[in-house]
Amino acid sequence: MREGGGCQQDRLGCKSHRVMAKSPGPLLKSPWGQSPAASLQWATKEPPPWAGRPWVMLLSVPRCTMVEVTVTPQSSLADRPVQVQVRGLSPSQLVTLRASLTDEQGERFQARAFFRADEAGEVDPGRHAALGGSYTGVWPMGLFWFLQPDTLFRRLVKRDVAGSPYRVHLEVFDGVRLVTGPQDQPLASCEAERWYVGPGMQRVPIREGRVRGALFLPPGPGPFPGVIDLFGGAGGLIEFRAGLLASRGFAVLALAFFAYDDLPRTLAQLDLEYFEEAAELLLRHPKVRGPGLGVVGVSKGGEVALAMATFLPQVVATVWINGTAFLHGNPLVYKDLRIPPIPYYTERVIFAELGALDNSAIFADPRDPAYSTSAIPAEKIRGKVLFVVGEADRSFNSKLFAELAMARMPPESCRLLSYPGAGHLIEPPGSPLCSISSIRGTPRPVVWGGEAQAHAKAQEHSWQEIVQFLELHLGPTATMKL
């Protein structure tokens, strides 16, 4: 039991207000505040001091205002905001709010924040500042954006995009709980569903010609503007961004280009004809609106996206996220063209915090005239390009690459969004910062960089800018809601 604002509150949130049972006339308070049974015990010995006089006894009458935590809406798309609220607390009560989820691989991610309830006994992370925990200050989505893995070097990546949501368990505990175990019972709890596709979304596996991937089609007859979505040097097929873009009204092809299905296990070269085949496949679909399409790429996928914008006339809108403007490690081949790569200087790698690899130094200075033939000739781009940069990117100097590419382009054909404190993996909001993670093909985890709060702000802002950029240059869409 704890005192708070003139009442008592137990762990279930029941408040017991003191009320007085009185007799007429001047009041004399019982010296014990005991129950009537205790008073009867006194009467068997000798009359109590207040015998024969008016008296008042304090009784506890429970008034249950159960503690409640809610999330509104309970089911939502993972890139949309929700409101978390706690009610029924004592004024100024100190509490811990915890969010947790378990991914498809059984890894648990958690965030917790400490709050003091307001005069109404409420906590709202959108109005009240977190005093400590996984973050501080007023962050309406802080419990979602600052999730961290229980196991080091794990990255939160939704795999089963269409089949199930992330189920985020929200709990409120009395006091400051630095850790919580099975023995700790919350005052209240609820669950939120965070989906990566809207209702009626169709996911179509693509295995046509050489092209491998997954096509996400919004409900309805269409046609919808088409987008190709690319990730980076770990390979495989990653679909969560494609599902969220499709939920904004785009027909999106999540495209694998190595280490998936029967594609090559390693990336020996960038065969641009493969990406041209994928673009033509997407534009042939009866639900896709041409004549042009968009491309979104991050890291190595950004390098590919810039090359596609340069050589493929179908590409009219390109989103380049922390990529390069030169070929690195692998040559680009397209028909009779071959662009040689700048080699990686792996002897310059640094063992950073926790033994992770800081790869930023393995990239040679692209301004060296010896590497001029490795540049992607961005001056040939006929469409529009949005460059998105995290200035705390520790994979490579992505801002320098963006500036070098833009220097070759007409100013009206490109735009730069540059975010101080943001790291390499700029993703849709709802994806917590991953500053270090293990990836396929590296013997140690890799440092990506980024500061949690600055990175979260960058993801929120850049995602809205990316969607608006694609809508502007590919045409209007019909946004979906759960």
Describe this structure in words.
With 482 residues, the chain is of the alpha/beta class. Helix content is 16%, strand content 31%. It has helices spanning 36-43, 142-145, 240-246, 272-284, 300-311, 398-407, 452-474, and strands at 2-4, 7-9, 14-22, 56-64, 68-72, 75-77, 83-87, 94-102, 108-116, 132-133, 148-149, 166-174, 188-195, 202-208, 211-217, 224-230, 251-255, 270-271, 288-298, 315-321, 332-334, 337-339, 350-351, 357-358, 384-390, 414-419, 436-437, 446-447. An eight-stranded mixed beta sheet has the order 14-15-17-16-19-20-25-26, sandwiched between helices. Strands 6, 8, 9, 10, 11, 12 and 13 form a seven-stranded mixed beta sheet that branches. Strand 27 (436-437) and strand 28 form a beta hairpin. The chain is globular. The model is unreliable at 1-64 (pLDDT under 50).
* Strand element count: 28
**Which value, in Å, is the CA radius of gyration?**
30 Å
The structural class is alpha/beta
Shape: globular
Strand content: 25-35%
Strand order of the largest sheet: 14-15-17-16-19-20-25-26
Which whole number gives the mean pLDDT?
Answer: 89
Number of helices in the DSSP assignment: 7
Note the quaternary state here: single chain
Termini Cα gap: 42 Å
Identify low-pLDDT runs.
Answer: 1-64
Describe the secondary-structure layout.
Blueprint (H helix, E strand, L loop, with lengths): L1 E3 L2 E3 L4 E9 L13 H8 L12 E9 L3 E5 L2 E3 L5 E5 L6 E9 L5 E9 L15 E2 L8 H4 L2 E2 L16 E9 L13 E8 L6 E7 L2 E7 L6 E7 L9 H7 L4 E5 L14 E2 H13 L3 E11 L1 H12 L3 E7 L10 E3 L2 E3 L10 E2 L5 E2 L25 E7 L7 H10 L6 E6 L16 E2 L8 E2 L4 H23 L8
Parallel strand pairs: 6-13, 16-17, 16-19, 18-21, 19-20, 20-25, 25-26
Antiparallel strand pairs: 1-2, 2-3, 3-4, 5-7, 8-9, 8-12, 9-10, 9-11, 12-13, 14-15, 15-17, 21-22, 23-24, 27-28
